[in-house]
Amino acid sequence: MSLLVVGLSHRSAPVSVLERAALSPDAQVKLLQDTLAAEPAAEAAVLATCNRIELYADVDKFHAGVAELSTLLAQHSGVGLEELTPHLYVHYEDRAVHHLFSVACGLDSMVVGEGQILGQIKDALATAQGLHTAGRLLNDLFQQALRVGKRAHSETGIDRAGQSLVTFGLEQLSAGRAVEAWAKGKKALVIGAGSMSSLAAATLARVGVGEIVIANRTHDRAERLAEILNGGDDTDVLARAVPMDSVPVELTRADIAVSCTGATGLVLTAESVAAAVEGRTGTPAALRDEASTGPAGHLAPSGVDDNCPLDLSAVQGAPGFSVMGEAAVAGMDAATLEQHAVWVDKGTGTVERRDGRRTPDVEAEADLITALAATAVTVGRIPERRRPEPVAEAPRPAPVLALLDLAMPRDIDAAVHRLLGVRFVDLESLAEASADAPMAADVDMVRRIVSDEVAAFSAAQRAAHITPTVVALRAMAADLVANEIARLDGRLPDLDDKQRGEISQTVRRVVDKLLHAPTVRVKQLAAEPGGAGYADALRTLFDLDPETVAAVSRAENNTENAKNRGRA
Question: Does residue 366 contact residue 344 with C-beta atoms inside 8 Å?
Fold first, then answer.
């Protein structure tokens, strides 16, 4: 059997695909059960977070395993296999171990170094153990991954390389200000009471917000979280729990709202957020111009002069493009002008005068631009006929509501980024922002730790792989000794107990000494790369029954699984 992982994450798939492929807790259970029922898999575990979905399995066939696990992911995520396949990655054997250890250390996280992934790995293992889908391999793998992650955080400064997703999101909302200064005294609404929402609430309390309101479908969980926050010795935050139907009212009071629920639909629509902004300001929430709004709510610089007499949408975005007045073109090289002339000559352009009337003579306009291009070739630049008129930017109100969506699939309608007075950050914008985050020097040290731990784990697994064969060999030798002692008793019935004991002990000592050096050496050889064949060699040399070896392996697995379930 061999370790295989098939998955997708923020590194391989856009957020829109991850959002659709997100697995509910019930879907994860069904996926594990169906994976174990599939022919290639003997063990299975699912690691599902807000930015990754990974299926780990112990399989007996690589290609069949990849096909089966990919199909199961598609079936249970609801994303078609053809659409999902380009975003899937596959890791096998040592590469699969290396991947999980890197994930556990935070090297593969959206925010490098965040430690929340350790809790999610622990939850994944507990789920697999509870469903009895994790055998010896996955138990060993996930428990070692937890130890490696803790080692990385304790022995290096990987925590300095990044923060939790919540902290990083708050930094994006604060727009360059210190989070503590930005958040101090603000009122916060946290929607959800799960692990991520609890982390968000604790982080908000730590950075100094004055009030936290917890809204959750299960009111008892919201109340427990509020009690924990109120009982904290290191903060003075006031926390209270409210039912979910109070969210619209609480949103009108909140300065910050963080949402992370397991809902399959939107928790906050653009309309509800607009109503909250109107409730705070007393005026309807206006929309930003869609053309000047970035994907994460950041205003993009306009590349078009409001006084431009032409429809320049076909060449919008060209560097330095600016048309001043009806005919004067300034700041554009000849090549760009010629390109625009061709565009107009094809009849796709429309010309509009400043008085709002259309100019019917498109060919005349094309001739004018071509002449201007010729002038640019001669003098290197078209002289301006008048000074460019300054473009007054419309005043934009400061955000009155900061929204952070950490759910997958999303809780908050992405259209809220167009609302004036709202600053919105979601997983997609966090992924974009974290792509340019600097890597700390400690990351290299963590990578070395991961490499060392992968080598040690793989050696231990190879050594463990031969253990059932060695046990079966010793069991066969013990049976042979017992049979020979019994035969000796039949031939020498007059032996007393002391004589019989001495003979038995002597024979066993001889057998143990003969087997000791070969079995110790074969374990050492099996632990080295390429040592997997020693178990087969041992079985062949001593003519061991494969079923006997398999029975030993099953017995060891059952014992180990019982221990692991007890530890979990």
Answer: yes
Looking from the CA of 540 toward its CB, the CA atoms found within 13 Å total 5
- What are the CA-CA distances from residue 38 to residues 42, 56, 65, 480 (Å)? 8, 13, 9, 40
Positive or negative, the Cα torsion across 307, 309, 310, 315? negative
Output the DSSP codes for 440-455.
Answer: PTHHHHHHHHHHHHHH
Contact, 337 vs 369, CB < 8 A?
yes
- At residue 311, φ and ψ (nearest 5 deg) are -90, 105
SS3 state at 422: strand
Q: Which of 536, 477, 481 is nearest to 506 (CA)?
A: 481
- 50 in catalytic set: yes
Q: What is the DSSP string of 252-288?
A: HH-SEEEE----SS-SB-HHHHHHHHHHHHSSPPPBP
Query: Catalytic residue among 50, 105, 260, 308, which?
Result: 50
Query: How many beta carbons lie within 10 A of that of residue 1, not counting itself?
Result: 18
Which two structure tokens, joined as six digits, stand for 235?
A: 């903060």
**pLDDT score for 532:** 65
- Token output for 253: 């009071």
Q: Taken in order 509, 512, 514, 517, is the CA torsion positive or negative?
A: negative
pLDDT tens by residue, 491-506: 888 888 888 888 888 8
Provide block-wise average pLDDT over 10 residues at a time, the chain (568 residues).
90 87 91 89 92 93 92 92 94 94 90 84 95 92 95 84 76 89 94 87 92 93 91 84 93 93 87 89 68 41 35 38 34 48 48 44 58 58 47 59 90 89 88 64 86 89 74 82 84 84 87 82 71 71 73 60 48
The CA distance from 391 to 306, in Å, is 7
In angstroms, the first-to-last Cα distance of the chain is 24
- Confidence (pLDDT) at 559: 56
- Give 484: exposed, middle or buried? Use CB within 10 Å, 0-12, 13-18, 19+: middle
Instruction: State how far Cα 139 lies from the chain centre.
Output: 21
Degrees (nearest 5) of the Cα angle 504, 508, 510?
Answer: 120
The length of the chain is 568
The amino acid at residue 366 is A
Q: Concatenate the DSSP letters of all residues of 335-357 into one string.
A: HHHHHHHHHHHTT---BB-TTSP
Cβ atoms 68, 4 nearer than 8 A: no
Beta carbons of 46 and 127 less than 8 angstroms apart? yes
Dist CA 365 CA 203 (whole Å): 60
Contact predicate 194/262, CB 8 Å: yes
Radius of gyration of the chain (CA): 34
Considering only CA atoms, which of 44, 27, 33 is closest in space to residue 134? 44
